[in-house]
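Budget justification, computational time. The allocation requested in the original proposal was used primarily to generate structure tokens for proteins on the priority list. As evidence of use, we reproduce two of the resulting records. The first is shown immediately below.
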Amino acid sequence: MRRIKIENKIKQLREQNGYTQQDLAEKVTVSRQTIISLESGRYNPSIILAYKIAKVFNLAIEDVFEFDKENYK
């Protein structure tokens, strides 16, 4: 099974809102390492975590996360 890459705007949104990685981690109850991994694209979030992150920024999930539709079949 091929891994689907999900692009995200977490770092951009986090910086625009003046949050550190630690701030965001605390708001969504994960470790700072998880935020680092999400921002670098090494880790795809669960749907629950994606929802929590989107809600921090007052956005819909699809406004924060977008999977590569070209490579998904």
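The second record produced under the same allocation is shown here.
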Amino acid sequence: MREICQSVEKIFQLLLDELQKSTRASEQNCREVAQRLTEEVSRICTESQRIQSSGEVEHWATTLAQHRLQQCLEYYQLGSGPGRVELHSTLSAIVYRYITPPQVQSSYQARLELIRDFLQGFYLEALNAFRRETKVPQTYSPRTRLELAEYMAFAERFAKRRIPLSRGRSQQLIILRSQTFSQQQPQETSVDMDLAAEGGSSESDTTWNDGTISQVREVMVGGNSQDNESESLRQAVIQELITYLEEHNQKDCADYFTLRLQDLPTHEIEAILGLNPRQRDYLQQRFKYHLLKFALSHRWELVHQWLEADLEKNLGLTPQEWDSFLSQIGSEQESLLKLKQQGMSDSAIAQTLGSTVAQVQKRWFKLLELAWEIRNRSDSGEGASSDE
């Protein structure tokens, strides 16, 4: 640890000198990029047990710094347009065999179109990861030629990150993401949220079928996504969920979810992630918790819009269910509902009701939970009668 601390200033100066010598960027811009690269290298060397035990921490730090510098300068020298083409070509070559169009006899052009659509989403995921890992504001976007080169180099490294698998194997992150994307194509997607979140039909089926969460599984059903707008919403929900998990330091949940989208049975998921059944069940429960928070709190508008259960449609309730819903809420909750229907923000509602934003969000969560339970009870009742 002491060795890497001592070499940080040396690495920063090396990067700064090379950036100033090899680019036309301003000194401040070079300093900012050099500082971010230095912090990345320092973090990797600190967290890597292999590097820490090698006895050559400073050598590794210098090597990593030079590699990142070279990548950044290569994209800088290419410029914006050619750089984007180079990045797109590099990543397309990696995912080409994993993205299969729904039609068996599809054209080469159809596959290229799918790859383009996939990479558009992946570039956004990479940008969010860059913001998170470099601790820049969530509104940050690369503006200068050097910043764009820094981002494109990061995106390439992010895509090639290895996710450890069982028995010493590993897989590149972008390949896992591309397999997920391919599975989500309309004609190919028969996986519902039960399969996506459960490890088959083993443990915790009762919890998963609770009214507060059962309809979230519809997000993964491709058969309900015939038009472009609906399909775009479904893709947005999936991508937002993965991003949400990663932003909340739940990368293992995101990896678990990604693998479940491939419709693998429980024992294969456990083998790939190197988990025993108890560990997998714990991970599954944690994933469900975050899924519920995402669906009823973090991005409830997006999820409800996808399920055609937004406020304009009375939260997806039939007239009879809506009457039942209104009869079960108090006057304060009814006031909250009316203000939400007027499109007011949480802060404005809090001021109107004399409460805090956190209290408003908590009460709204409970209202959404109640609506979903009512809707699910009706669906379950119809399913039971039809089965009988």
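A brief technical remark on that second record: The CA atoms of residues 169 and 272 lie 9 Å apart.
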